[in-house]
Amino acid sequence: MYTFTVPPPIRKSVVLSVLAAVLVMVTLPYMIAASAGGSEYVFGGFLLNPLDGNSYLAKMYQGWSGAWQFTLPFTADPGQGAYLFLFYLFLGHLARWTGLSLLMVFHLARVIAGILLVLALAYFFPRVMPEGRHAGFAFALAALGSGLGWLAVALGGFTSDFWVAEAYPFLSFYANPHFPLAMAISLWLLASPGEPFTWLRAAMTVVAGLLLGILLPFAAVIVGLVLVALAIWNWLAIRRLEWRRPLFLALGGAAPLIYALLATRISPQLSAWNRQNVTPAPAIWDLIVSLSPALFLAVPGAVFAARRKEDGPRMLVCWAVIGLILLYLPWSLQRRFMFALYVPMAGLAVLGVSSLAKYSLTRFRLLATALFLLALPTNLVVILAGLGAARNQDAKVFISRREMDAFRWLAQETPQEAVVLSSPETGALIPAYSGRRVVYGHPFETVNALNTRVEVLRFVSGQMTSAQASAFFTEQRVSYIFWGPRELADGWIPTLTDLRPVYQNGGVTIFAVRPTS
């Protein structure tokens, strides 16, 4: 039977150097963007996937307003609330308690969670890699590396390693706080699989499972399946069954998962949202590019790990295989199971380098350096893209000051239950900066999103008759119409008789909709 011994940690200088490099790379672009708006624009706060970023901010706004139950902010009829997205609701409450802005709290949480993730990686790899040199390099690769998307860009492609943030530690740190925090908790749960399981660790596993289930239920499922698979492997290999880790994880993580499933079935609005929440897996070629070069080296690494008797290498194999299987099973949420997949791939890739080096330190260093240099450029491209968006004041990540002033007016001068009609682009911003609901603003969180978006675009482009527009206002409970630079892009201005201007500021007008009998 394998006996667990506490491994030597990664050198502090290596950990601090990698942490410093990651911090600079994921914070400097935001700092530059925050000062790039000039007198006309305000940085919206998100350089990667601003649509989801504004969704997080809208959830925080609900917490800031005092809610502990989530309701859909991007649809006219939000339905009954549910205890979902508690992390972002809590951040909203935290912003109110501290007096800090929602964006400030979001990014402080992102940085803190990212630091915890880097430290968790430094804790994780010494406990699952068979040698110290393996652990240090796997840590650096997992923290800083990515796929070969930079080569795809050169050929006109756009692969998952540029935008599927939950799969990569670096990209998750760059995007939001809940991905890196969930990743850090997962790494703690999966580290030291052969370590004695004390009652203290059992209690901590229950708490960690509960937190993981609240933050990211898919992560709890993945971690649980990995622990079960490792337990089965050990039972078949050495007749040692470790059932307590998955059991205590389930005691903590199952409750929020079951509640989320029930909530999305009971509420018609949340059920409609869940049906639209389709996240298919990337194409096979995309996945190969996005996980390479680590993926190719992970194959000999998995063979090497499978021959070892330690739990750590076996756990990496279980994680990688389960992640790939879940990713392509026939269900609507495939891509969610890419969560942290780059971590086991990085570990197995380093083991693959070791097996190919055949005990030659020089060969190991050459192969490892080549792996690292090929895995780094994609994240550099992500950073350069963010800096380019800041320099060009990209409309996807910047908001005009006139729009921001109008959002504040909505927040201060309109009822909390008011529904605002705007273009889809503005609809993504209004709940995040005013707390008011919109007719359309998100492809998942707007009920009947596809048809609603079509109708909104018909109105914004002036293709509705007065009678059709009035019926649409009634159907969607429209209280106000927001008409700013994004709506003016089509050149049409609403002239309907049942509209009354109540706010004007340069190129932004807000109309109140007169109720019709």
Salient structural properties:
7 strands, two-stranded antiparallel sheet, mainly alpha, elongated, single chain
Task: Write up this protein.
By secondary structure, the chain is mainly alpha-helical. It has two domains: 12-22 and 63-379, no CATH class; 398-513, no CATH class. Helix content is 61%, strand content 5%. It has 23 helices and seven strands. The strands form two sheets. The protein has a five-stranded mixed β-sheet. α7 packs antiparallel against α8 (178-190).
Gross geometry: elongated
| Biggest sheet details | 5 strands, mixed
> How many strand units?
7
Question: What topology, given as strand order, has the largest sheet?
Answer: 4-3-5-7-6
What structural class do helix, strand and pairing data support? mainly alpha
- Kindly report the oligomeric state of this protein: single chain
Amount of beta strand? 5-15%
Order of helices and strands: HEHHHHHHHHHHHHHHHHHEHEHHEHHEEE
End-to-end distance? 80 Å
Q: How many structural units, i.e. domains? A: 2
- The Cα radius of gyration reads 25 Å
Residue windows where pLDDT falls under 50 for at least 5 positions: none
Output mean pLDDT: 92
Compute the number of helices.
23
Helix content: 55-70%
Short précis:
This protein is mainly alpha-helical and 517 residues long.
Give me the secondary-structure topology.
Blueprint: H1 12-34, E1 41-43, H2 50-64, H3 86-98, H4 102-128, H5 132-144, H6 149-154, H7 169-175, H8 178-190, H9 199-215, H10 217-238, H11 244-266, H12 268-276, H13 284-291, H14 294-306, H15 311-327, H16 342-357, H17 361-375, H18 377-391, E2 398-400, H19 401-413, E3 419-421, H20 424-427, H21 430-434, E4 437-438, H22 449-460, H23 466-475, E5 480-483, E6 499-505, E7 508-513
